[in-house]
Specification:
heterotrimer; A alpha/beta (277); B alpha/beta (286); C mainly alpha (323); B: alpha/beta; Rossmann fold; 10 helices; globular; C: ABC transporter involved in vitamin B12 uptake, BtuC; 14 helices
């Protein structure tokens, strides 16, 4: 059992024909049993970094390892048995029922030919239950709301029985309850089942409360990495997201409140923390 | 008074001629005077013009007009079914003769709009050669020769029909194409030729000139011979294909090839064509 | 299970009917006797050497077109894809028309030329769609197919415009599709060409399910997306090229049958592909029987019959789907 799930060493990637690199010199580790948050604004290279970690892209410089091997050298089915990914947007063209969609998550284990058995069906049922999607099981996916569809995809990822779960902005369409439930679900899996979680999000406040470690990206470079208390400061957030924030200490974590233009006349507590009265 | 009388006589003659011309040539705008610069848009029309002695008046032909050989020295104006209006007008015609077809209707309209005299004629059956000759005779001022040729041809056709043919009836299929199989039906000119030759067309019951059928139908009607139109090889390549072996005449390799242009369109050469056809069929029967 | 039995029964019924009916007007009893080799030799020859191979060939071609349609719809992620979308029909048509216009000899000249034309179009479109190394961009595939098809059709038009009327008519009739060249030999050749692509495509059923989710989700679920796309494209194209070479261009089967099966059954490709094969085969076999018999002794082009049958079927399906 490898201790380090993902590792990047000075990894860079430039898309063919692009003027600038999407990711430059990224170096960090994701250890087993951690919940790591990757935050950064749009265009900071979060999705490209994920593709590098998952071997979908080979780095143009440096190295990216998954489970100790170069990520791009993994055979897709083998990697899919160990890592499940919920991508940002998925729009299937053909009608499918939810149960069938989730069953596709068994592919890494059954492959192209082996028939599905009761064991597979049990895993699918459990995955649906954990993602709170059992009630949706017989619906057509075209009839689902954005949030429901995302829960179904999380269920499918769980059906892969992975060691690591990667969610790329997967809570973007969810309402408050379902977003919190998704984060809680991942946190519970990490805590109780020893899964490793990688959450890409720009909801830095939630990431600050859930993640064990945070990696902050800006313009393709890692500007900060470490526990939220160290890596996610007001200075970092303001620089990376290019917007002034006020800081609130809340139950042991730092929460950032974006300032309004009207508030600009009031000197804001940049760098200084304010406590709740 | 003498001049007035002569003018009146001229006017009256012109009126009578015009009436006669209008009466004999119903379709299209027709010139009052005989045409001297004629563009022909079909090989059968070109051939007929030469046959009635109006060949010197032809100033334009289609690329497919190849008979008589003198026609080849005339300038070509392109294709007859999709006529090139510009090329036609460049020949400065006073009459353009069209073959009846929907594909050249647009060109017909355009020429009429330009004020060019046009006429449309059907040339699908042997009877059309007779009416065509008479009409073209009037149009080109060669009426006397044209009418006598037409009458002679009509009489020869009638006497050919009147003579019964000895021997057991030969049954043939007239095959225009192999894939898909296209046969000539009762409405086709080649049907008339074989009928005059004393031979039965197994697809004579089809009213139209040609039609696509399946090999099965040909096999079921069991012709004695296959008459090939436009085939140059002694034995067609497709005759070796397995699906054609179901047809007895193909299996036994009984083919008659009709390659001359006299077999492709109705002309004054039709009776000679019938003679050649009878001889070829007689050969193939043995 | 009941559905498979019903589908199988339909297939057998259609095949049997296609053998019994025909323009030669043979009585059913004579047909049956002809099958076992008794009776009039012409009847035996018609039944055994024409009708049986023709019905079976129409079935195989229809099945192949339906499978190809389903696969291409998943590959380009577009429900409106059909086997001829990739420029194949243009290439095949151009090859056939050139063979007719140039008067190329040989019994197999036209089908061979059609196959060569189709393969040339496949290669051209593939070349256009391969970007950045070996990645096959399916959007370019679609667009490239339309462009190559249009180019070939334009050239075809030019050739036909310069041809005499009989060649024009023959070329058009060939393009409209037909099974007049069906024989045991043609059937054997087609079956030999179609077997490998059909098997390969069936074996790719589950990866096809993944691919219809999208390339990235498919990749993360374990599919080898690039090799899969190449395999699908090449197998589907070869299958269509063989069908066109044998039977001309027959539309609607590849487009409509996969949707019919999806609506009635499901769209996991493990059931979709075999079911589409059987239903597509039955449709084309029936259409050919109608084409041969409806206006006997005249034959309609098969492509016309499939369109006439296909349009109302499609309309009904679309209404049900959007309901």
């Amino acid at each position: 059992m490898e201790r380090v799930i993902f590792e990047a060493r000075g990894a860079s990637y430039r898309y063919p024909g692009a003027a600038a690199a999407a990711v430059t010199g990224a170096g960090f580790r994701v250890a087993r049993g951690e919940l790591v948050g990757i935050v950064g604004p749009n265009g900071s290279g979060k999705t490209t970094l994920l593709r590098l970690l998952l071997g979908a892209l080979a780095p143009t410089a440096g190295q990216v390892l998954a489970f100790g091997k170069p990520a791009a050298s993994w055979r897709r089915r083998e990697l899919a048995r160990r890592v499940a990914v919920v991508v940002q947007r998925e729009e299937p063209v053909f009608p499918l029922r939810v149960r069938e969609a989730v069953t596709l998550g068994r592919y890494p284990h059954v492959g192209p030919f082996r028939p599905l058995g009761p064991h597979d069906r049990d895993i699918v049922a459990e995955a649906l239950a954990r993602a709170d999607a059992t009630a949706l099981a017989d619906r057509w996916i075209a009839t689902l709301s954005g949030g429901e569809w995302q829960r179904v995809r999380i269920a499918r990822a769980l059906a892969q029985q992975p060691e690591a779960l990667v969610l790329d902005e997967a809570t973007a369409n969810l309402d408050l309850r379902h977003e919190m439930e998704a984060f809680e679900l991942v946190a519970a899996l990490v805590r109780d089942r020893g899964l490793t979680g990688v959450l890409v999000s720009h909801h830095f406040n939630l990431v600050a409360r859930f993640a064990d470690r945070v990696i902050v990206l800006a313009r393709g470079a890692v500007v900060a990495a470490g526990p939220p208390a160290e890596a996610l400061t007001a200075a970092v957030v303001e620089r990376v997201f290019e917007w002034p924030v006020d800081v609130l200490a809340w139950r042991g974590t730092r929460q950032f409140i974006p300032m309004r233009r009207a508030d600009a006349t009031v000197p804001h507590s940049a760098g200084r923390e304010r406590s709740e009265p | 008074m003498r001049f007035a009388g002569r003018n009146a006589a001229r006017a009256a003659t012109a009126a009578i001629l015009a009436a006669a011309a209008a009466g004999c040539a119903p379709a299209g705008r027709v010139a009052e005077r005989p045409a001297h610069r004629v563009v022909s848009l079909a090989p059968s029309i070109t051939e007929l013009l030469f046959a009635i002695g109006a060949g010197d008046r032809v100033v334009g032909r289609t690329t497919w007009c190849d008979y008589p050989p003198e026609a080849l020295s005339i300038a070509s104006v392109g294709d007859g079914l999709h006529p090139n209006v510009e090329a036609i007008v460049a020949r400065r015609p006073d009459l353009v003769l069209f073959y009846t077809s929907s594909s050249n209707a647009a060109a017909l309209e355009r020429l009429r709009a330009l004020g060019v005299a046009t006429d449309t004629i059907r040339m699908d059956r042997l009877a059309d050669v007779v009416t065509g000759a008479r009409r073209f005779g009037r149009l080109t001022g060669t009426a006397r020769r044209a009418d006598s040729l037409a009458a002679a041809f009509a009489a020869a056709l009638d006497s050919a029909r009147a003579v019964p043919v000895p021997g057991p009836r030969v049954r043939v299929v007239l095959l225009a194409w192999d894939a898909p199989p296209v046969v000539i039906g009762g409405g086709g000119f080649q049907h008339e030729l074989v009928t005059l030759a004393g031979v039965d067309n197994v697809f004579g019951d089809l009213a139209r000139a040609s039609g696509q059928v399946s090999i099965e139908t040909i096999a079921a009607r069991d012709p004695d011979l296959v008459v090939l139109l436009g085939e140059t090889a002694p034995e067609p390549a497709w005759a070796a294909r397995p699906e054609w072996q179901v047809v007895r005449a193909v299996r036994e390799r009984r083919f008659v090839r009709l390659t001359g242009s006299e077999f492709a369109r109705p002309t004054f050469r039709a009776l000679a064509a019938v003679r050649d056809l009878r001889a070829a069929i007689g050969e193939a029967r043995r | 299970m009941r559905r498979w039995t019903a589908l199988g029964a339909l297939a057998i019924a259609v095949l049997a009917t296609a053998i019994v009916v025909g323009p030669a007007g043979l009585a059913p009893g004579d047909v049956l006797r002809g099958l076992v080799g008794r009776g009039d030799p012409t009847t035996i020859a018609i039944v055994r050497d024409l009708r049986v191979p023709r019905a079976v060939l129409a079935f195989l071609v229809g099945g192949s077109l339906a499978v190809t349609g389903a696969v291409l719809q998943a590959l380009v992620r577009n429900p409106l894809a059909d086997p001829y979308l990739l420029g194949l029909s243009g290439g095949a048509g151009l090859g056939a028309v050139l063979a007719i216009a140039l008067g190329l000899g040989g019994a197999w000249a036209v089908p061979a030329a059609a196959a060569v034309g189709a393969l040339a179009a496949i290669a051209l479109v593939y070349r256009l769609a391969v970007v950045a190394g070996a990645v096959l961009d399916t959007r370019v595939l679609l667009l490239g197919g339309v462009v190559v098809g249009a180019f070939a059709a334009a050239l075809m038009g030019a050739v036909l415009a310069l041809s005499p009327a009989e060649d024009l008519r023959s070329a058009l009739l060939w393009l409209l599709g037909g099974f007049d060249t069906a024989s045991w030999r043609t059937l054997g050749i087609f079956a030999a060409y179609a077997a490998a692509p059909l098997v390969l495509l069936y074996r790719a059923s589950r990866p096809l399910d993944l691919l219809s989710l999208g390339e990235e989700p498919a990749r993360f679920l374990g599919a080898d997306v690039e090799p899969l796309k190449r395999l699908l494209y090449v197998a589907a194209s070869l299958l269509t090229a063989a069908a066109v070479a044998v039977a001309g261009i027959i539309g609607f089967v590849g487009l409509v049958i996969p949707h019919a099966i999806r609506l009635l059954w499901g769209h996991t490709h493990r059931t979709l592909l075999p079911a589409a094969f059987v239903l597509g085969g039955a449709l084309l076999c029936a259409a050919d029987a109608v084409a041969r018999t409806a206006f006997a002794p005249l034959t309609l082009p098969v492509g016309v019959v499939t369109a006439v049958l296909g349009v109302p079927v499609f309309a009904i399906l679309v209404r049900r789907w959007s309901a």
